[in-house]
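Try this one yourself first.
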């Protein structure tokens, strides 16, 4: 039984405390803004790297079963879960005790911020990179549940930490009786020279350390899905159920939908999950429940890149999918005309595409994917189909992984549910097949969100709200903008910003602007006079999805004494006092120029 407690309005974390068969979801603890270990001394409990392996991280958990599951299975656990779909999916898979942090905590100095008891142990399963170096080299209280094949590029231990040297003994403390004055002067000169050399070496080491940390912490990016990491653990213990595999798929798809990983990384991880899907299909193909009304059948698909189209009309999906809306430029009359030409080329009557997909003629749906892909190629859309997965719950309910991502995300950030804890539980419950009514509600909220996103993009482009600030583009939503309340939360605003940048790149003729990142602001609280700021990296085909705005935001805020709060674990999302916005942006322009 889960008992929901109250939480503060803006905290991004949920604490799930489990004890025996019962569990308790408690209000969030805001772990706080990112910090960097600025001192040169080693973190408590740290060890030098593994001999012969410079920079090796000895605290990474290599045997998840022995070093994680068997340690915590008979203990009490406090579970911290970030407010994103991947974290929810990992939470559904995980059923443990101790302190477990999902998609939060890796990129901040946990011990400095939380000040825990010495007996406390934190298992951190987080996609945020880079991992804080103090967490990396603390092997007593911090255990990182991170795939070792992720390219972490952690600096070597000796480049970051060094033990405090003992106070030097001065010759004056020693007995100089019987020493000649010339011998005293010689020893003193040698000691002064030695101390001077050590101070110079220390300054040089600290300068190198500063450069190394700057290079390491400069960009923010994401590693392997937390849900996939948790599923790997379940698989190693032969506890991998079909539902868990589906949650791992949704977690990965969440990363792809939100542009957190590269296309190459997505395709690679899809291949990994596809093998698990095949294994599950063979395992259950002869079982009686495989055809029951309760079963969950997961399939790999090469499907259309159209949002929610099987739960919407094809026309609405085409108009509210970022990929098609940006390339058709649907905010213009010319774009609307091109959409009509596209539908004519596909051979779909307007009457058919404007009714619900499930109500379309069966004859039209038979080869619909191939027909749309062929016409899309003629209109310059070469990536109309993508590798993905679908699930059938019984005989009636079918969902693509992206359907569930959008539905869950909309439930989690819905302004309708009031309390953030209520939204969190609604989103978590919607992932269970026994709560399909909540999932369908999420789909309706997602449609509303997607419509508002495209309408806001059209408004921003048609009124020239996207302006160049020199090193970046800037767009600000004002209080009173239609549906602005839907973009006060970080995931929704980040998605709007990414879609806006893609559309702007398709619409502008300025080659330089096509290569610029975007900073976007939206009202957060009129009473408190705050705005949410989001930084999005440039939209290029070769983009490695690394974001430099986290460090830049932090430096600009510190340099201007702006009242800012990194209240989220994506450091490129920041809350700022509206009246400090002008000086903050000026500092950001100077910093990035």
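Now uncover the answer:
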């Amino acid at each position: 039984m889960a008992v929901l407690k109250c939480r503060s309005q803006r905290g991004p974390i949920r604490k799930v405390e489990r004890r025996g068969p019962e569990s308790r979801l408690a209000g969030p603890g805001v772990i706080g803004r990112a910090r960097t270990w600025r001192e040169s001394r080693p973190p408590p409990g740290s060890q030098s790297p593994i001999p012969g392996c410079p920079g090796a991280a000895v605290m990474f958990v290599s045997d998840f079963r022995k070093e994680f599951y068997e340690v915590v299975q008979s203990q009490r656990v406090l579970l911290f879960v970030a407010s994103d779909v991947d974290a929810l999916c990992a939470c559904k898979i995980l059923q443990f005790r101790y302190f477990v942090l999902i998609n939060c905590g890796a990129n901040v100095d946990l011990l400095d911020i939380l000040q825990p008891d010495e007996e406390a142990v934190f298992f951190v399963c987080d996609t945020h990179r880079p991992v804080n170096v103090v967490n990396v080299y603390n092997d007593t209280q911090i255990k990182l549940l991170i795939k070792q094949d992720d390219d972490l590029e952690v600096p070597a231990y000796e480049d970051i930490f060094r033990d405090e040297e003992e106070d030097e003994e001065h010759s004056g403390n020693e007995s100089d009786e019987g020493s000649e004055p010339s011998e005293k002067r010689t020893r003193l000169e040698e000691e002064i020279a030695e101390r001077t050399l050590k101070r110079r070496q220390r300054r040089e080491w600290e300068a190198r350390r500063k450069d190394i940390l700057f290079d390491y912490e400069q960009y923010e990016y994401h590693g392997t899905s937390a849900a996939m990491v948790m599923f790997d653990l379940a698989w190693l213990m032969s506890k991998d159920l079909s539902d868990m595999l589906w949650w791992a798929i949704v977690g990965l798809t969440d990363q792809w939908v939100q542009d957190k990983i590269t296309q190459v990384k997505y395709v690679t991880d899809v291949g990994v999950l596809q093998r698990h899907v095949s294994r599950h299909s063979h395992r259950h193909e002869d079982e009686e429940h495989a055809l029951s009304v309760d079963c969950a059948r997961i399939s790999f698909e090469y499907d259309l890149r159209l949002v929610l189209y099987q739960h919407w009309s094809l026309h609405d999906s085409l108009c509210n999918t970022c990929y098609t809306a940006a390339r058709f430029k649907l905010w213009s009359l010319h774009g609307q005309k091109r959409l009509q030409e596209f539908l004519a080329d596909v051979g779909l009557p307007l009457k058919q595409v404007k009714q619900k997909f499930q109500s379309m003629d069966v004859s039209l749906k038979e080869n619909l994917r191939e027909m749309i892909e062929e016409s899309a190629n003629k209109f310059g859309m070469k990536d109309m189909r993508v590798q993905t997965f679908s699930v059938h719950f019984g005989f009636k309910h079918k969902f693509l992984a992206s359907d569930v991502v959008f539905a869950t995300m909309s439930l989690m950030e819905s302004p309708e549910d009031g309390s953030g804890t209520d939204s969190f539980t609604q989103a978590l419950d919607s992932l269970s097949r026994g709560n399909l009514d909540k999932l369908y509600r999420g789909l309706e909220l997602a449609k509303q969100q997607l419509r508002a996103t495209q309408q806001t993009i059209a408004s921003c482009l048609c009124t020239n709200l996207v302006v160049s600030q020199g090193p970046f583009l800037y767009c600000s939503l004002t209080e009173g903008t239609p549906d602005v309340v839907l973009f006060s939360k970080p995931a929704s605003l980040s998605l709007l910003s990414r879609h806006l940048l893609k559309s702007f790149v398709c619409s502008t003729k300025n080659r330089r602007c096509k290569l610029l990142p975007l900073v976007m602001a939206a009202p957060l609280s009129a009473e408190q006079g705050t705005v949410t700021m989001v930084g999005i990296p440039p939209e290029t085909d070769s983009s490695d999805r690394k974001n430099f705005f986290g460090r830049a935001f932090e430096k600009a805020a510190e340099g201007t004494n702006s009242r800012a709060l990194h209240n989220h674990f994506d450091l490129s999302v920041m809350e700022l006092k509206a009246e400090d916005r002008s000086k903050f942006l000026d500092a950001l322009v100077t910093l990035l120029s």
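Discussion: The two ends are 54 Å apart (CA to CA). The chain has a mean pLDDT of 83.
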